[in-house]
Amino acid sequence: MDEQEMAIVLKEKDDLNREMSNLRSQRKAEAQPQQLHLNYISKESLSLLIAESTNRVNELEERLNLALSLQTEATNKVKELEDRLKESVILQIESANKVKELEDRLKDVEILQAESTNRVREVEASLESKSEWWNKKEKFYHTLTEFQLGALRELKFASQSIHQEIVKTKKSYSDESTTLGSRIKALDDAANNYYSILAEDRKLHNELQELKGDIRVCCRIRPFLPGQKRKHSIFEYIGDNGDLIVSDPFKRGKEGFRSFKFDKVYSPEATQAEVFSDTQPLVQSVLDGYNVCIFAYGQTGSGKTYTMSGPDGATEEEWGVNYRALNNFFRISQSRESNFTYEISVQIVEIYNEQVRDLLGKNDNSAKRYPLFKIIIIHVVKTTSAVLELMDIGLNNRAKSSTAMNERSSRSHSIVSIHARGLDLKSGSSLRGSLHLVDLAGSERIDRSEVTGDRLKEAQHINKSLSALGDVIFALAQKNSHVPYRNSKLTQVLQSSLDGQAKIVMFVQLNPDASSYNETLHTLKFAERVSSVEDVRELTEQVNIFLPDVARKNIYISSKLI
Ligand code: ADP
Ligand code: MG
């Protein structure tokens, strides 16, 4: 193609482009208002459409929800119906079984009915025959019943009269029991009264004992023994009120006389019973809770053992203080049985060469095993004879080693201790008292030039313990604050019983013969030292004032006892 052609073409092309852009702008101008209108229209309709479609969607959603809930409900219903169906099927099966069972039963019942019909028939037949027999029986029972009714009427009548009788008796019983009640009350009052009188009597008794003094020294003069030749006594005068005058066989006239005063002096004729009678009230004190110690002091052969125990193989009349005291003990404790119960126990010990030995222990040579008094066994006893048995054992156990002068028993102290523990049944209170019966070792003094060795040792021990005893009793009589108990085994052993409100009786045994004068004088001096320092005469007067009151009480108590 040439350039012309080309220019023509290009020109044509430019024309065409120009024409096209003209057309375009023309169309654009034409289209712009339409476009605006269109835009407006489409925006409105679109929002309308959107609103409409949103509503529609909501509506559809609601419907869907409804449809869904309906579907769930329907599903549940279907499930429920299925369950019911299952149940009804089961029930149907069950009812079918039941029907079957019932049918079976019906069959059984039918069989039974048939059987019972047969039986009824049978029974009817037998009844008919029996009915006649029953009629007969009925008649018989009828007459019997009538007869029994008559008897019953009679019985009723009798029972009524018995009832009346019982009412009458009951009344008289009640009257009697009322009077009995008042009588019992009176008796009870009397018993209470008696109890308080007893208590008062015990108090009075002990007050009287106290008034007589806590320490009593009584001398007892031994009679001449059958074999003794010179029967002239050194005792010039023995008074009823405790006066004693001794005459020195080696001095003539008034110078040879010495007078003493004790609580009591027993003459050689005094019986065992008389000697005990003055000590006996103290035994009662033990049962009232006091401690009592009775000693026999004197030279060997002066009658200590005789006073305490009696002679060998003693008859009841010859019984010494210890047997009598025990008898009294059991007698008083028995008489108090309704108000008190007592437990009585016994221990027997010997003190030899400052050693304590249990005489009721099994082993004889066991002195060293009993260094302390406390561990010695106490024997509980119920009767006097049981105590006597124990005393025999004790006596046999008291070893006897014969020497030139006397048996060992003379050189040892023997202590029989009786402990009473009483329970006051009314007040519930308890009391403890003890009685110690001490047969002391011979008080004779030993000539140091004559004895040596063991014998001297024994004598020294005896001397020491007897003077310790004298010091203790003297301190007690003086009411000293310090009492020298620790100076000998004897006083140590008796300390708890001597302390405080203890009552002490010292039987001072005396030989009547002239050859014993010096020893007798020594004994009397010991006795004088330990005897009460108070004015005995004044006390005796007080006691005499007191005595009628005691006698009056005793008469009252005796009358209550009857
Ligand atoms: P002690 O124990 O002091 O050594 P005993 O009691 O053994 O003395 O007495 C010595 C002797 O005297 C004994 O034979 C005893 O029977 C006798 N005897 C002592 N006192 C009396 C008395 N009151 N009556 C009769 N005989 C007595
Ligand atoms: Mg003796």
Automatic annotation (TrEMBL):
Coiled coil (residue ranges): 6-119
Binding site for ATP: G298, Q299, T300, G301, S302, G303, K304, T305
Pfam families in alphabetical order: Kinesin (PF00225)
PROSITE patterns: KINESIN_MOTOR_1, KINESIN_MOTOR_2
GO biological process: microtubule-based movement; microtubule-based process
Annotated GO CC locations: microtubule; microtubule cytoskeleton
Keyword set, alphabetical order: ATP-binding, Coiled coil, Microtubule, Motor protein, Nucleotide-binding
SMART domains, per the entry: KISc
Source taxon at top rank: Eukaryota
Entry keyword annotation includes Coiled coil: yes
Keyword Lipoprotein appears in the UniProt entry: no
Molecular function via GO: ATP binding; microtubule binding; microtubule motor activity
Domain Kinesin motor: from-to ranges: 214-533
PANTHER family listed in its UniProt record: KINESIN-LIKE PROTEIN KIN-14P, KINESIN-LIKE PROTEIN KLP-3
UniProt record similarity statement: Belongs to the TRAFAC class myosin-kinesin ATPase superfamily. Kinesin family. KIN-14 subfamily.
Descriptive protein name: Kinesin-like protein
